[in-house]
Amino acid sequence: MNSFLQEISQLVEDFGSAPKINEMPRRTLADKGIEGPTAAHVIEEVHTPLNLAYLTFTTGTSAFQNIVGVTYAELPARIKAAFTVLERAGLKKGDKVLVTYPPLVNVFAGQALKDYGLEWSFLVRSSRDAFLAALYQEQPAAVLGESAFLRAALIDAKNMGVAGDLPQGVRLLTAGTPLDLELLPIAAEVLQAQVHDLYGCQEIGWLAMDGIPVRDDIELTPTAAQSGQQYYELVVGGLPMGDSFPCSESGHICNKEGKIITYRRERTYPEYEVIVKATTLASVVTLGRVARSILRIKGRVVKVSPDVQVNAPATVLELCGDPVAGITVPPVTITGPVKTEFFDSMVQAQLDYQQNSKADPVWTKRS
């Protein structure tokens, strides 16, 4: 064998500039704070890009789950919203939270729970009996889970005659699906529990609690009437969520101060298109990359106007109806920086990525 190549082989083995597989950083379920069982998943190792804080999936209640990438740039706003939720629920440092569905932690970001000072745990098995056992043994201050699951489990406890042995005054943070209104009376009867209705998504984080927004960049825009009632689409940081809700002065069932009736969600029709009219970026090419990234990791379509203004003092987004659908809605203009915070965080993520480009040709793609 060529002695020079032998020397290279030894150098690669001992001092290579790229890591071996066992030297690569690893982000486990425990690192993300979601190391609990579910009946809906398998555990699969993947190569995750370094520019993503973590990967997760949408819940997929009506279709296949979509993969979601969470960037480092958006974490501060996500964590701030999570703190707002925890503070409104009356939780304090050191409290225990029992999580019935581990992926819900990703909506907070496990870092938020850690920074807040909470302790959280999961069920031994993803079943109602395991939930009742954990509730009895751990005596948590709060439970995070899907409302229909909690309702069914508490009915089980009542029917089995064990309701009197369960902790009282527990806060139930319900999420994942629209609030099951039948949970409220059984939760009050069995646990004397306060129920909170969380609305959010894996793509962005928590958006509303008991009908009250938990972020500063939320807008409500009118959509086509549903069954004769006016609905409003929830728009976050300039991006429509595809969900519309009625708003009521009489208030949310969990908090009369909340005006967004999040448990009466409807899919928006027709969906808005998002057009970037102005950007703080100097390059339209970079803006196009941002738009493609939002589609790939957030599942939201963003288009760039042919006459977009660059180097603008703030982002300007225009939401337009889809004329092909045959139903038109007046365009809505959203101007930053406050109301476009989420979109701007994706812009910052793109800039961060470009400023840390790789020099090795193996990373370079020629156009």
Structural summary, described in words:
The protein is α/β, with parallel strands linked by helices. Helix content is 29%, strand content 23%. The strands form 4 sheets. It has a 7-stranded mixed β-sheet, sandwiched between helices. Helix 9 links the parallel strand 14 (273-278) and strand 15. Helix 7 crosses helix 8. It is flat, with a radius of gyration of 23 Å. The mean pLDDT is 92.
Can I get a quick summary?
By secondary structure, this protein is of the alpha/beta class. It has 10 helices and 17 strands. The strands form 4 sheets. The chain has a 7-stranded mixed sheet, sandwiched between helices. A 4-stranded antiparallel sheet has the order 10-11-12-13.
The main sheet orders its strands as: 4-3-5-6-7-8-9
Strand content: 15-25%
**Number of DSSP helices?**
10
N-to-C SSE string, H for helix and E for strand: HHEEHEHHEHEHEHEEEEEEEEHEEEH
Number of strands: 17
> Rg to the nearest angstrom?
23 Å
The shape is flat
Low-confidence regions: none
> What is the helix fraction of residues, given as a range?
25-40%
Structural class by secondary-structure content: alpha/beta
Please give the alpha-carbon distance between the first and last residues: 39 Å
The biggest beta sheet is recorded as: 7 strands, mixed
On the 0-100 scale, what is the average pLDDT? 92
